[in-house]
Amino acid sequence: MSSMRLPVALSSLLFASLAISLGGCDSHAANPSPDASKAAPAQAASASPQAQSRSQVFAAVKQMTAVGEKIFFDPSLSGSGKLACASCHNPYHAFGPSNGLSVQLGGSDMHRPGFRAVPSLRYLQAVPAFTEHFHDSDDEGDESVDAGPTGGLTWDGRVDHGADQARIPLLSSFEMGSTPAKIAAAVKAAPYADDFRRAFGANVFDSDDKTFAAVLRALEAFEQVPQKFYPYTSKFDAYLAGKTKLTDAELHGLELFNDEKKGNCAACHISQRAKDGTPPQFSDFGLIAVGVPRNRALPVNKDPRYHDLGACGPERTDLKGRDEFCGLFRTPSLRNVALRKTFFHNGIYHSLEDVVRFYVERDTNPEKFYPVSKGVVQKFDDLPKRYWSNVNTEPPFDRKRGEQPALDEAEIRDVVAFLGTLTDGYQVPAQTPAKSAAN
Ligand code: HEC
Ligand code: HEC
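That is the input. Now the predicted structure with heme C docked in place:
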């Protein structure tokens, strides 16, 4: 366990906290705050940054984390005053949405629809920074294998750190619809304003930009609390630890999930521990095109010319014009997937059975998923034809129309039963200990 992959975001956070402390030196406090006397260790440390020890840095991170949690649940930062991060990322649903809407509503009037499904915020600590060419020693033991575009946050991998990500919903006109000035005013007026000042230093309210930057760092810090964001408390984790058994259906589902000739799900949603013993994340974080059908229920899709092409845009801009990235979305972890009511980047499906059916029948029975016009199936209807070569054709996507699907209905049910073992919060059933009652 000690050698988990270094969480990129956390290391940046530690440096960021040092940078804030350093920044504190050159500021001439125009309005000496009465609260300055309440200086806590983290703030005291900012007086002499050279002397800041690791433990002081960790104390500062702890304070940022506590205040980050409060911000995460605070709707007063939003333009409408009604939307918090937690409104879309509900802690009782693994920080995913609690309702079954394909996309959530937000903006100043709370009526503006988004264009993508809300992902869970759990297990993001394992997502590597985005790279076009990923080499992993865990991949068949050969680091020379190029696994292709991998990593980054959001469905298209366009940001690498929680702080950069948090800026997106806070400022988005269809999400929290706020501004740095409004956010700074809300934090100054919040019951946790003093805690915020203690965590980031007396001068954090000197400018709106400074306050806003600190809000983003606090949110990033909160998103890395292990117990809340990567607890590894699912039934499957208990099973891997030898503490519980899977039912026959769950076990059969796991076999089908792993079997290269059946579901082949584990090819992308990795189900085995990493070499260093890290529990499986159920994703290799690769960006892949699976040809999800167009969700015609989304308002944004009323415009037939609009296509959410994932990594090549239009939302993500740095890979614009790079055709090989069109239609690619980051493979999500399947941990806690059974808590969701909306699946895939455009939220088109609302049951796990439908998702698994899509995988195994996309190519054998495409008419079930795509519109049929004049007897012709409009396969991959959310992707312009010139990008079709990007669509994945590995098993179970390796069949032809009319062939036998890789899984039958009973097998689909078992895979779904297995996916249910990935939900956190499993209580290992009390058992009469087999050994002795002496302890
Ligand atoms: C209106 C709903 C909504 C609100 C409010 C919201 N989010 Fe999100 N969040 C989303 C959606 C939708 C995505 C996917 C965005 C994309 O792929 O472009 C997302 C993605 C994310 C991700 C990346 C997840 C991943 O799988 O890579 C993080 C982290 C995140 N949000 C954190 C936050 C934080 C922090 C806040 C509050 C400042 C917040 N969100 C507020 C809807 C919301
Ligand atoms: C070639 C890689 C690959 C394989 C194989 C694969 N998946 Fe996926 N999976 C993805 C990608 C990429 C997405 C996101 C696609 C999107 O939204 O555009 C995804 C999304 C999902 C989702 C939706 C999760 C969510 O939060 O919305 C589920 C459920 C899922 N996969 C289950 C499975 C199962 C079950 C199998 C085996 C039958 C499987 N996957 C095989 C890459 C893969």
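The mean pLDDT is 88.
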